[in-house]
Specification:
Chain A: It is a multi-pass membrane protein. Chain A: InterPro entries: MetI-like, MetI-like_sf. Chain A: Belongs to the binding-protein-dependent transport system permease family. The complex is a heterodimer of chains A (291) and B (315). By secondary structure, chain A is mainly α. Chain A contains 13 helices and two strands. Chain A has a domain of 174 residues: MetI-like (MetI-like fold). In chain A, β1 and β2 form a beta hairpin. Chain B folds into two domains: 64 residues, no CATH class; 246 residues, MetI-like fold, CATH 1.10.3720.10. In chain B, strands 1-2 form a two-stranded antiparallel sheet. The mean pLDDT of chain B is 86. The chains are: A mainly alpha (291), B mainly alpha (315). Chains A and B meet through α1, α4, α5, α6 and α9 of A and α1, α2, α6, α7 and α8 of B.
């Protein structure tokens, strides 16, 4: 009775671990390629670990401004930090009043948010509005439109809805106004949801591709996603091409440089992932209950 | 009569007083409200250009009205059916794989009682969800490249010729769906795994007493217990079936594979942003509007059905 069950466990564990490893294997391969000597890459022997480890590819792409990798990373970081901070503030400040039952009109406002979430105007009407607002080739296009994400607004509001109303009554008796109550009573209690929406907003902005593709033609404003597209996918259309280079006795192939660029675009998410993973899980579960 | 009028007046006054008392709340709400008006409602009004011959120089107010001309032009275009076919086929293939795989994965993860292994598997499997499509497609390009890409190296070693996957129309749908599965299955499984952890353990004990095997418990206890979740998720997936990942398509397609890869949204994008001639905003907006209306009806319908279903099941 026990043996077949244990066999099931062995097979199941092996199978799942294998799937998990396959999921991340391409990232490992990219990292190894970026760290390997071009001579090894060209002979096609890089399958798992790097050979002839060196950081020349990283030094090269970060010091050659013509490639735009350094500025792409700096831009992405700027958009993510500034845009993310603004988005968290505005989202919280929108969700809080909408979670107060005495706010007249909150259902209608929420309904409009839901409607505009489900019925999308589409990219062309958006373009006409953004163009009129002078957002074309402006850094603001990566910040302002992202300030309220309806999904995150809903999960923040449902978190605030669940906090006891008595908290507010006590503060009112102490003579606090709504602004003070929001920041001093509810904001500190909302740390878990603030963490969740911070992580979601940051990843959302870091990963933007369509918006910068449409609005940021100026290379000095482009985030890393667009830089990657021009370098790797669209390189034939007059993007960035490489020749083979030898630096400090290490051969650098286009493969090394492209892999290093890809890895740098993943690195920030890789760095925060272990610490923030639980907030992602929380987000999808809250969202699934209400959404 | 007069008492009713008085009560109405009092009600109005009370309403106004309630609003006045909440004035700070309205001020707090202001940035979000402005955001909604500017970035969500204004573009909706911008949709009127679908009924105009919009010119960027004349603006929305002065452009000529043409009624449904663009809509009928699109429907009568010979390219229309190709776009509809590509859009629908891609959506169906996507649903066929992206929907069931997380459920199967969740069933197996749920059988893992060793929690470090469980955590390890879940952590790695939903990592790709947080990676930009631009990065995912870049990696795909590298892996599938005919020059030194891993997949073609393996094909060559096995004695096959190299395949230029990204330029073959026949490969597009498989690659798009495969990439979506890679990116989404671990993340989508979270909901099912959460639903499974709330199954009453007594059910399994009862099954044990009846001498049920592992497989029987999976199929007779676990799966029926999460049936509601599956149905609700399925209905919601149907509602969003037309929501293609435009980022991914723009990243993956090129003129040599338009035959299978060009869908309604990518066509709209090209009308405005990358056509060789003058950008055709009105035509593109009309096509986009048609798609939005159909998608809206699907989402609302699906939500109606899902709330009815989950209500009757849950309560």
């Amino acid at each position: 009775m026990h043996r077949p069950s244990r066999l099931f466990d062995y097979v199941n564990h092996t199978f799942l671990i294998l799937i998990a490893l396959i999921c991340v294997y391409p990232f490992v391969l990219i990292m190894s390629t970026s760290l390997s000597d071009g001579k090894e890459v060209v002979s096609g022997t890089i399958y798992l670990w790097p050979k002839g480890i060196n950081f020349e590819a990283y030094k090269y792409i970060l010091s050659n401004s013509r490639l735009g990798v350094a500025s792409g990373l700096a831009n992405s970081l700027f958009y993510t930090v500034v845009g993310g901070a603004i988005a968290v503030m505005v989202t919280f400040m929108t969700a809080y009043p909408l979670s107060r039952k005495r706010l007249v009109g909150r259902y209608v406002i929420m309904l409009v948010f839901m409607f505009t979430w489900v019925f999308e105007a589409g990219i062309i009407p958006n373009y006409i509005v953004y163009n009129a607002l002078d957002l074309v080739n402006s850094r603001w296009v990566m910040i302002l439109p992202m300030a309220v994400n309806t999904f995150l607004l809903i999960i923040t509001k449902s978190f605030l809805d669940a906090l006891p109303e008595e908290l507010e009554e006590a503060a009112v008796i102490d003579g606090a106004n709504d602004w003070q109550i929001m920041w001093r009573v509810f904001f500190p209690l909302s740390k878990p949801i603030i963490a969740t929406i911070s992580v979601f907003n940051a990843v959302f902005i870091w990963n933007q591709f369509l918006v910068p593709m449409i609005y940021l033609q100026e290379r000095s404003l482009q985030p890393i996603t667009v830089v990657l597209y021009n370098m790797i996918i669209n390189s034939s259309k007059g993007g960035t091409s490489f020749e083979n280079i030898t630096v400090n006795g290490v051969q650098l192939l286009p493969q090394n440089l492209q892999a290093a660029s890809i890895f740098l675009a993943v690195a920030p998410i890789l760095l925060i992932y272990p610490f923030t993973q639980r907030f992602f899980t929380k987000g999808i579960l809250i969202g699934s209950v209400k959404g | 009569m007069s008492s009713i009028a008085k009560r109405n007046a009092a009600g109005k006054g009370a309403l106004f007083k309630r609003m006045w008392d909440a004035k700070i709340l309205y001020l707090i709400l202001l940035p979000g409200l402005i955001h909604m008006i500017v970035f969500k409602l204004l573009p909706l009004f911008g949709l009127v250009i679908a009924f105009q011959d919009y010119s960027i120089f004349q603006g929305v107010l002065k452009s000529k009205w043409v009624g449904f001309e663009h809509f009928s032009a699109f429907v009568n275009d010979s390219y229309f059916w190709k776009l509809v076919r590509n859009t629908v086929l891609l959506a169906i293939f996507n649903l066929m794989f992206v929907f069931p795989i997380p459920i199967i994965f969740a069933l197996f993860v749920n059988e893992v009682k060793n929690s470090p292994i469980k955590r390890f598997v879940q952590t790695l499997s939903f990592f790709p969800y947080f990676i930009s499509s631009a990065v995912m497609v870049s990696i795909l390009y590298k892996l599938l490249s005919p020059q030194g890409g891993l997949v073609n190296d393996v094909l060559n070693a096995l004695g096959f010729d190299s395949v230029f996957f990204m330029a073959e129309p026949g490969w597009f749908r498989a690659l798009y769906v495969g990439l979506n599965v890679w990116q989404l299955f671990g993340y989508n499984a979270i909901i099912y795994i959460a639903a499974m952890t709330s199954i009453d353990p007594h059910l399994y004990e009862a099954a044990d007493l009846d001498g049920a095997s592992r497989w029987q418990k999976i199929f007779r206890v676990t799966l029926p217990s999460i049936q509601t979740t599956i149905v609700v998720m399925f209905i919601l997936a149907i509602g969003q079936i037309l929501t293609v990942d435009l980022d991914k398509i723009l990243l993956m397609y090129n003129p040599s594979i338009y035959d299978t890869a060009d869908v309604i949204q990518s066509y709209v994008y090209r009308q405005a942003f990358s056509s060789e001639g003058f950008p055709n905003y009105s035509y593109g907006a009309a096509v986009g509007l048609m798609q939005s209306v159909i998608a809206f009806v699907l989402v609302i319908g699906a939500n109606k059905i899902s709330s009815r279903y989950s209500d009757s099941r849950l309560f």
